[in-house]
Amino acid sequence: MSERAADLELDAGMGPREDVRRALAYHERTKHHLDRYARSPAFLGWDYQPDPFRTFEGAPAVALPLLADGLTTPFADLFRPGAVAPRPLELGTVALLFELSLGLSAWKQYRGDRWALRCNPSSGNLHPTEGYAVLPVLPGLGAGVYHYVSRDHRLERRCALEGPAAERLAGRLPSGTFLVGLSSIHWREAWKYGERAYRYCQHDAGHALAAIRYAAAALGWSAVLLDAPSDADLAALLGLDRPEDFAGAAPADREHPDAALLVGPPPLRPESLPLPLADWPLGGTWAGRANPLSPSHDPWAAIDEAAEATRKPATPPLEAAPQPPSPPLSLPAPASRLPASTLFRRRRSALAFDGRTAIEAEAFLAMLDRLLPRPDVPPWDALTWPPKVHAGLFVHRVRGLVPGFYLFERDASVHDRLRAEVREDLAWERPPGCPDHLRLFRLARQDLRDASRIISCHQTVASHGAFSLGMIADFGDTIRSGGAWWYRRLFWEAGMLGQVLYLEAEAAGVRGTGIGCYFDDAFHDLLGLSGDRFQDLYHFTVGAPVDDPRLTTLPPYGHLDPVPGPA
Ligand SMILES: Cc1cc2nc3c(=O)[nH]c(=O)nc-3n(C[C@H](O)[C@H](O)[C@H](O)COP(=O)(O)O)c2cc1C
């Protein structure tokens, strides 16, 4: 359907408009309020906690080599287009892409409990996101659709493409490229968080998107989100619509298609694919039965309804987002000649901050700078739309900046509309020393430690760090004019902001934590926002961490037998 036809349907009050209404209603009903949290289970059903690892029994498995220790690309080089020579597409580089994006980064142990952490973070460490690869024939690997199992660092060959089917695939992928697919199992998050969990699944998908784009950059590759395909096209490609393969798992254990990325040597655009995914049926032979994740489930109808309302139809590809004039990278890259592969695996959420350590304004501004899109720079070049998520910052301890409330616009075009929506008594002062291209404004000089803690569900991580922030999305108009599925995309963008901040914090020698629990309207009230033009979609905090000495850290893959790498 053309964009024009979609508009007409919206105007006529048919399906898409009802979907928009349902998406906005889901958002409203899943707000946390100071006096009432969104609906969640009264207690955690530990005996039916979902398995964090999906497997497909009967699908041939390919053990991948662990090669990240040998990848020395400095993190700082990822932001200099052309600095990393593209690696060839082969089993080892596919293994690296997954190891550095969705792979395990450590195990934590406390008394008798052990749990895995991954390069991509997840609300409550529940990991709803599953990863797939659609690969042409490579030495040691047949063509097909593969599911990635992070626990075992292995690919399961869900669909084998042989002969003409393999040739068809080869004809549809630009040379040296492949597809990465993402899906979500909402139940994994809903088990703990109830109705609000659908938001967290989208955040996590955004983190995963960014993690894949960063890992691609470490291999000298690009990665771009294919924005045109429908969810149904994606489900067909990844085999998520094959009821027979999910028959042993309850409906709640199924996977919902999220996104596909084209990955390979730059430059890449969605149009680099010669044929849209909808016209891709590849044939091939499917194998594998999805494992059940929980013996029983709580129903969360609000999530099912939100998922239904925000499913994506096929759409025309978006026009390439006009790249803003690339501002000079006048700020020092964060203290990072460290290998990107070290940084990705070192990324962790801080459990607590020390409430003392300040960071330098230079480091703070460098982090904000990395939130701006630039051509061929990860992760923002993976998206085809200009920034729609901005930040309201609680600055607590940044040397050289007065503590207070700040606003960071990632795109100048939002300024007038945003300014028209917020309180009139805000100062909108430019902090002294802030480079021109960083649209940072001081709205108020204020000690916001208590306010930020309270707004973040009383969590001291929001007040004990150097700064925390709420992500302000250009919300109602985007969803009304674009379609209900933009609800998901806005959360993805917010999740990507989170991933940038996690890595930048590590690079600067401090640490970040995503904050999904916050009182939505309490933050809006601080800015004087009413209505749904702008909505707060995610919080984040950065500071000097205090570790919990009771936890033991174990290596990510000590439990696996070594797999030889390429000769
Ligand atoms: C979307 C999202 C929301 C989160 N919300 C919170 C939060 O409200 N409070 C908190 O302490 N940690 C929060 N976290 C951090 C997770 O608990 C953490 O990512 C997870 O336990 C895995 O640990 P890791 O990040 O060290 O890999 C959040 C993370 C994500 C991705």
Strand-helix topology:
Layout: H1 3-11, H2 15-29, E1 56-57, E2 61-63, H3 91-99, E3 104-110, E4 113-118, E5 129-135, E6 143-149, E7 154-161, H4 163-172, E8 178-184, H5 186-193, H6 197-218, E9 222-225, H7 231-238, E10 256-264, E11 285-286, E12 289-290, H8 301-309, H9 340-346, E13 359-360, H10 361-369, E14 389-395, E15 398-399, E16 404-409, H11 415-421, E17 439-445, H12 449-455, E18 467-474, H13 476-482, H14 486-507, E19 511-515, H15 520-527, E20 534-543, E21 552-554
Parallel strand pairs: 13-15
Antiparallel strand pairs: 1-12, 2-7, 3-4, 3-21, 5-6, 5-8, 6-7, 7-11, 8-10, 9-10, 14-16, 14-18, 16-17, 18-20, 19-20
The chain binds flavin mononucleotide.
Biggest pleated-sheet summary = 8 strands, antiparallel
* Uncertain stretches of 5 or more adjacent residues: 1-13
Present as ligands are: flavin mononucleotide
Give the structural class. Answer: alpha+beta
What average pLDDT do the residues reach? 94
Give the radius of gyration: 22 Å
Which of globular, elongated, flat, extended, rod-shaped describes the shape? globular
Note the quaternary state here.
single chain
Number of helices: 15
The count of DSSP E runs of length 2 or more, i.e. the number of strands, is 21
* Strand residue content: 15-25%
What percent of the residues sit in helical stretches (DSSP H or I)? 25-40%
Our measurement of the CA-to-CA distance between the termini, rounded to an integer number of angstroms, reads: 49 Å
